[in-house]
Design a protein that fits this description.
169 residues; mainly alpha; 9 helices; elongated
Amino acid sequence: MQDDRYSAYVHRPALLIYVRRLVNGDAHLAEDIVQETLVRAWQHPDVFGPGFGSARGWLFSVAHNLAVDAHRRRHRRGEIAVGMVPDAPTGDGVNAVLLRHEVHEALARLSADHRAVVVELHLHGYTMAEAAKRLRVPIGTVKSRAHAAQRQLSAILRQRGVDRTALCA
């Protein structure tokens, strides 16, 4: 039975390709999800036993569920969109809270069209093509709105006294 559990590793390359697509190309997150999938396979040897069905299907289902969970976790913690702005290094986190507030305020000052593009691309993590489809506009419109939104956000934050290095720290 132990040898059967090693057969899960045969599916690792295909799992990695599949998961990378699910996490928008984030190689580190994809590796973590595949690793967790293989750990779960190791913990459930019955999956590879006779009469269970497709072990490969089980692996892909587990990987899919882990990717969805990771996305939900990141969304809840605010790591997507505004959370993509790294926290400023402070002992008490005050600077990070203030920076996030400034970014939220700046986003609120964008036009509805520009804000919608930023939300689709950065909050929801869609590609340009996916955002265009969801917003029902041409991809070129999404690209130009994203570029304009980035310029406007930079100008607004500069006006509000937010140093560019604070955003990249």
